[in-house]
């Protein structure tokens, strides 16, 4: 008789956003007349930029012609896209990343879940608490996290780095040395960031400890403050200790179109072995490339019009962030985030737990958010709202919350 991967049975509940989806569905079915405003999952609402749509149409037409038709995409992604990334995302920031250090993929969610495969099962991971659930769950599925302790809401073999109000929701360097450190800045879910000097401390720590940092920079386009780094490679020595994950989902609205990339510098080694080669091997075996038309659309993000149009979209969402932040603060809520990130992190009022506040907001204001406790024990008592809604819905949601 076959056996299953029993690590899956250790996972508590279902994926956070599936749980929320089920609750909202049940509420909508019981209250069909209510207009629900969704500020829960970080999904964009603006259509793709015109430059991106033009590129998609053009690439689609190429697929209809024998001479320009494309089959499988190259393993690492098309050179035209990797060159645009190296030039625009890195060179302009004084960072030298070569195109064979860039791996195009279908999303930062898949990359952040899959990257753990190239590491030994005995490696110890460190994560922020609260944290984007994919990092922990994917390691749990692999069997790297020990047992889940329901009374603590934690895994026995994971190093948790609490991110609290006292530290501006930034983690402190862990006392027990981890092998793999997951960092996400601008942060999901708290919307916090750290400056370059602070990030440099993590790079120095990792290089000294022989640890690898998996740096999720999916929200870098939302950075508005000067001294906040857009890439971990802006720090000295990061190429020998860091992998960077980037996405087109939040900076160009590709959540439904799927496009991302991972950077693994060739200097990043375990003994003589380059992690770049391991990921190339894994990518080549398990992934057959992001479709040509999507990569062509992605390259359009780096054209002059593409840059201008996507910048406008980000400004639109950041205006929503301002509406949420200022509206809630005026209503007496304790809020943070929303300045360098599209997420606003608020304290639940009174003694309400995160899920109690979720139910209250859904029932009384018909607004959906994300309970902080879904991101880890230190998220309890907090709640996340996203700035990715439409302007009109965002305004209305805040007006409804203010009236409660
Ligand atoms: C979120 O709401 O946290 C995001 O949608 C996560 C993601 O991008 O997968």
UniProtKB/TrEMBL annotation:
| SUPFAM superfamilies for this protein | PLP-dependent transferases (SSF53383)
Pathway, per Swiss-Prot/TrEMBL? Amino-acid biosynthesis; L-lysine biosynthesis via DAP pathway; LL-2,6-diaminopimelate from (S)-tetrahydrodipicolinate (aminotransferase route): step 1/1
Q: What is one process in the GO biological process aspect for this record?
A: lysine biosynthetic process via diaminopimelate, diaminopimelate-aminotransferase pathway
Q: Could you give a GO molecular-function term held by this entry? A: pyridoxal phosphate binding
Q: Which residues carry this modification: N6-(pyridoxal phosphate)lysine?
A: 250
Q: What class of enzyme is it?
A: transferase
Record key words, sorted: Aminotransferase, Pyridoxal phosphate, Transferase
Q: What InterPro entries is this protein classified in?
A: Aminotransferase_I/II_large, DapL/ALD1, NHTrfase_class1_PyrdxlP-BS, PyrdxlP-dep_Trfase, PyrdxlP-dep_Trfase_major, PyrdxlP-dep_Trfase_small
Provide the Aminotransferase class I/classII large domain boundaries: 35-401
Q: Which family does it belong to?
A: Belongs to the class-I pyridoxal-phosphate-dependent aminotransferase family. LL-diaminopimelate aminotransferase subfamily.
Q: What does this protein do?
A: Involved in the synthesis of meso-diaminopimelate (m-DAP or DL-DAP), required for both lysine and peptidoglycan biosynthesis. Catalyzes the direct conversion of tetrahydrodipicolinate to LL-diaminopimelate.
**What is the recorded name of this protein?**
LL-diaminopimelate aminotransferase
Gene behind this chain? dapL
